[in-house]
Amino acid sequence: GDQAELLRKKLEIHVKGDVIPAPIVAFSSCALPQKLLQNIETAGYGMPTPVQMQVIPAALDGKSLLVSADTGSGKTASFLIPIISHCANFRRSNFSNHKKPIAVVLTPTRELCIQVEDNAKLLGKGLPFKTALVVGGDPMARQLYRIQQGVELIIGTPGRLIDLLTKHDVELNDVKIFGLDEVDCILQRGFRDQVMQIFRALSQPQVLMYSATISQDIEKIASFMAKDVTVVSIGKPNR
Ligand code: ADP
Ligand code: MG
């Protein structure tokens, strides 16, 4: 309503497309696992950053988003917090012998994947979910073994994940959230076909896509992957 609009204006949050929930001003305003809220506090995150204020409630609501915000604005936690929440809640209600991943995050480089995984460990400490890092430079057999033992979240580069998908049958059809960090860089590196191939292995996931700039091309990819994508850009109008 009007309150949401006022808050967005003040925080320079621009929203275009499908209606999404209002920004939150405190992490505790969202129904997050208690342990996750504790980890957020321990990490020293007093207040959510503007991108987190808008993305976290919308992502928890199941919305697919195309997000643009400056470097250093806290985008990683904006997708990891909803993903960790999903993974933790999923495990709790399905503590049977569930083995397949339920979330995938792609980034353009091994280094970025490691950073995202470090963040996931920090924010996910003590929560019942496992991650697998799927990047070049580490033995594929070890990554495959870890996935086969059962992980909720895969964090990887498109090239290595495609290797695993095509050479071994890693099943991604239970993946509910597909995160794409720095998607403009992923595409610049020539990974478009791999990203599309990975997407086709998923079954209509929620998409959380991040890009430094929102080009028509990237908007097209986002709306190909999910219907009703909302574009969220922070600090500057999205065009
Ligand atoms: P981006 O991906 O937008 O470039 P990052 O997600 O890497 O930025 O975050 C930049 C830095 O800000 C990191 O050191 C991260 O730990 C920190 N950070 C993230 N969210 C918060 C927050 N709510 N409060 C304080 N620091 C935060
Ligand atoms: Mg980032």
List the helices and strands and how they pair.
Elements: H1 2-11, E1 13-17, H2 34-42, H3 50-60, E2 64-68, H4 75-93, E3 103-106, H5 110-124, E4 131-134, H6 140-150, E5 153-156, H7 158-167, E6 177-180, H8 183-188, H9 192-201, E7 206-210, H10 216-225, E8 229-234
Parallel strand pairs: 2-7, 2-8, 3-5, 3-6, 4-5, 6-7
Antiparallel strand pairs: 1-8
Helix pairs in contact: 3-4, 4-5, 7-9
Bound molecules: adenosine-5'-diphosphate and magnesium ion.
Adenosine-5'-diphosphate binds at residues 45, 48-49, 52, 69, 71-77.
Derived structural class? alpha/beta
Radius of gyration of CA atoms, rounded to a whole number: 17 Å
Major beta sheet summary: 8 strands, mixed
End-to-end separation? 24 Å
In helices, the fraction of residues equals 40-55%
Query: What is the H-and-E element order?
Result: HEHHEHEHEHEHEHHEHE
The mean pLDDT is: 94
**So how many helices?**
10
Poorly predicted ranges (pLDDT <50, ≥5 residues)? none
Shape designation: globular
Strand content range: 15-25%
Organism: Theobroma cacao
Protein name: RNA helicase
Family: Belongs to the DEAD box helicase family. DDX59 subfamily.
